[in-house]
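hiii, so i know i said id send this last week but things got crazy w the move. better late than never?? heres the sequnce for the chain we talked about at the cafe, plus the structure i predicted for it. fair warning i was half asleep when i ran it
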Amino acid sequence: MYNWNEHALRIRPSQGDFGIDVIVPTSHTPARWDVYQVKKFATNLDTNQKAQIDKSFRRVLIALVRGKVPLNDWYLVTPLDPTLNNLQDWFEETPARAVEALAEDSDLEVTAAELDTINEWLEAPDRIIAWKGLNFCETLAGDYPRVIDYYLHGGRDRLRDAVADLAALLRVDSALRVHDSAAPGEGSAAVLEPGDIRDHLSRLDRVLDTDPHFRYGYSLDLRPPDLHSEPRLVAATQEQISDDRWLTVKIYARSPQSLEERPIPMKLEFSFEDDDEDRAAFETWRKYGKPFEGAASFSVRLPGGLSTDGEVGRIRLSPAAVEGAVHRRRLRIVDPDGTSLAELTFTMSSATGLDRTGSWGQGSDESGVLSAEFLLDGTALSGTCNFTLAPVAGLDARKVLPALRFAAALTTPNTLQASTEYGPFRDFSAIPAGDPLAEPALAGFVEDLDTIQTVTNVPVQVPDVEILSSEDIRQIRRAASLIRGKTSVGSWTDLTFEKHEEIALNPGDHYQISLFEPLSAPINSTTLPLGYMDRTALSAQVDSVDGNTVRIVPHSSDAVYSNFAPELPAELNGQRAVRFRPAEEPQVTVDTAE
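okay and structure toks below
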């Protein structure tokens, strides 16, 4: 049944298992289970055997109401097809007999509410209570003969078929190309090409795919491929079989029960010096469950003839996938007054140490640049937390800014607080003295980049500040300051422009002037337009007028005031212009030469 449905799960006999043999989560609602009650009855049912089946059905109904078993449908599996009498006069009445017996059972004392729940389950639309007999069992045996051969025939059939397929592999010379007729320099350079061995690889796969518990993947590569966690992958071996060829074999469980039916024994032996770092890391793993890697000798009884004995290498111990299930935690930094300085949500995984006195947790924020690691001591009721900041150059400023704010606040006298995804914060620990994880100046600079992001659709990325010039930094900060609404004060010397013919300007006249200039900043290795600067000088004097060419200079003050303008005023019709306002007179507009 494991081969028939990879999600099937055999229930190990124990007290309180309600006699359930095999459960299969339903495909449409995995949280609900189909129960398969397996009996070995192969001949006509006698009274005792029928009583056993009745008892099994009553127990599964008790599991429904008292064991909170999410029962979906129920199947009797036995290598016996029912007679018409068995089916109509006995099996179809099994639910009614069960309800009647439960109602009269003085030991169980089934309540009226429990009986209502049972009847509601029995009367549900599309409820299936079925007999899967000899035909079902023979179909399974026909579909998965390797299981029968493995358990009942000692592998005779598998051996016979394997010998036949291997013999076909040894006849590979019959498929070799004949190159004698090819002219020199023509035809294939290889005696056997990859395309010639498809059938042989298929035969080889059939030879290997006869294990009822495991499947095997294999590859031959010029260099050893990286190994990663995969669904159902339980082990892998890599071996250099020639100077430049690596053989990789992967072992996959056919079902979640494969390792229960065929465990893989392993023996590890570590050897440490008294002051060895590996010893300290091993002790941390044993107490907290933090992954550990160290030198060890090991023996493993792997399936598929891949066992090793007395090998020496580096061993990594890490949490199982289920134990490391992710959860979300919020961390916050507050100052001595309790004011929140920064808050982040971390996606965490955790593990428990071998002696169950501590736990290890690790995760990262949503940007992925700030990582946190916790070691929690359940005995001392204390813990530590370490943070690591990854390089942010090349990443979007908006995404990494919250992490940088948090990292910049990781300094004394602030306090680290923790909470679940929802709920109140609790103090975790005071932040010790030392430099913050991120310089406040860097966080402030990325804050400027985030401000610039508000006026452009182009993603603003964090540059490598080590190679950024001081002038580039100045321009970025000036642009951000203007965009935030601050006024920049500077000075000016003179300005020359072309006026309209009909505009009269006389040397010596005193004006207030306003000039719109493009605002840009060096972003993403280019000059990014951001809008305009409205630059205003409160005191300007016409120095000379030569035809339509006008030169103006500061009068009583050379101060110029700059403010941000997302776009040019509508009255300028998209043209750059100098706007004049003589004392006590309305403002006039003069176009400038492009």
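btw Confidence is low (pLDDT under 50) at residues 173-180. thought thatd interest u
miss u guys!!
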